[in-house]
Design goal:
Helices cover about 35% and strands about 25% of the residues. By secondary structure, the protein is an alpha+beta fold. A hairpin with a 2-residue loop joins strand 8 (about 225-235) and strand 9. Helix 3 crosses helix 4 and helix 8 packs antiparallel against helix 9. One zinc ion binds next to loops.
Length: about 375
């Protein structure tokens, strides 16, 4: 899946992971399903019941414990890891425990099935368990040039769908939200995404629910239509939100949208290297608060993005982590008036030495169709 990388990329990532383990006193890192595994090995484990586990001792070679039937899917890289296939009648957790040996501090990936951790606790009862996110997370957050290129390409593909939306190429009036969601999904694939992660379509009063599930509501003249969509392309995600208005914009919606647009610009502008993540949220929120809509902006301003649609770092009050070169995140303020309407405006932004770089360029205004 990660065609942009060769084995030297994984060797380099693993070396940096081991340096972080050494610094944090972690003896063994265990990664199962989730995105840390492909980040370090290029392999996406099937999220099924059989155990796949990368075992990375701080001072010895890494092994990937894998069901024998899935081993042919893996490109083995001797300089990164070797394969340890297990048979249907083996106990894979016992195999992992043997590889752990007498290690005392074990870092575990967030998405490992609880079942395997519970079984591991019985095998290694005296070990201390930590979250692997502290070891791998800082590396994953700081995207390298190839990763930013992949985000840029995914963003451009999503942008092309937004342009189609703004041009009126996507039929809206008389269609259900679900039909429009399916249309946008097909266009995300047609524009180059491998997978669609979501295509939220929320019309009129439904747009007041930020994560509304596109349903049977028929879209009609006079509606505001919120479209929040994204997918994965070459292993990296897109995610953007645009709203359109069907017919003349009532003054209350026009006023609120002007505030929303200004808020989004302020959030993007705040995304400079060295700024605390919470300051991006504060910059966007201040504009909405000052205009009197503060009670109707009911979520954080943004989330990190990369191999996952939502990942660290989060643009939320209290997150004092400082933005670094290569941190990629959404800036997506919203204003939601229950039972009336909602609106959100979202771009993906990467912190670069030259300032915040947007991955999305489609018209930011409330386009009338
Ligand atoms: Zn969301
Ligand atoms: Zn979104
Ligand atoms: Zn988002």
């Amino acid at each position: 899946m990660i065609s942009v990388h060769d084995s030297s990329v994984f060797e380099n990532r693993l070396a940096r992971v081991r340096a972080a383990m050494l610094q944090q006193g972690v003896d063994v890192l265990l990664l199962s399903v989730g995105h840390d595994l492909p980040y370090l090995t290029g392999y996406y484990a099937m999220p099924l019941e059989r155990l796949t586990m990368l075992v990375v001792p701080v001072d010895a070679a890494a092994s990937m414990v894998i069901p024998r039937l899935e081993a042919p899917r893996v490109t083995e890289m001797p300089s990164v890891f070797s394969l340890v296939p297990w048979n249907e009648t083996d106990d894979p957790v016992a195999i992992v425990a043997k590889l752990i040996g007498s290690a005392t501090t074990i870092a575990v990936g967030d998405q490992m099935w609880a079942r395997f951790l519970v079984e591991l606790l019985a095998h290694c009862p005296r070990a201390h368990y930590r979250r692997a996110v502290d070891v791998v997370g800082p590396l994953r957050m700081a995207k390298d040039a190839a990763e930013v290129d992949a985000l840029r390409a995914a963003g451009a593909a999503a942008d092309r769908v937004a342009v189609q939306l703004h041009a009126g190429d996507i039929p809206l009036i008389g269609k259900t939200e679900a039909q429009v969601s399916a249309d946008i999904s097909a266009r995300l694939i047609a524009e180059g995404h491998d997978i669609v992660n979501f295509a939220i379509v929320a019309a009129g009063e439904n747009a007041a629910s930020p994560h509304h599930h596109a349903g049977p509501r028929v879209i009609k003249h006079g509606d505001i239509v919120l479209c929040d969509f994204g997918g994965t392309m070459n292993g990296y995600c897109s995610d953007m939100t645009r709203c359109v208005h069907l017919g003349d914009i009532p003054s209350d919606i026009a006023d609120a949208y002007a505030v929303l647009h200004e808020s989004q610009i302020a959030g993007v502008a705040a995304g400079v290297v060295g700024a605390p993540c919470e300051s991006i949220d504060a910059a966007s929120r201040r504009v909405i608060d000052d205009a009197g809509y503060g009670d109707f902006f009911i979520h954080r301003t943004g989330h990190g993005i990369g191999m996952e649609a939502h990942e660290d770092p989060y643009m939320v009050s209290g997150n004092k982590r400082l933005l670094e070169v290569g941190h990629a995140f959404s800036v997506e303020p919203g204003i939601y008036l229950p039972t009336k309407w909602g609106m959100r405006l979202e771009d993906i932004v990467v912190a670069t030495p030259g300032g915040p770089e947007s991955m999305n360029f489609a018209d930011h205004s409330l386009v009338v169709l």
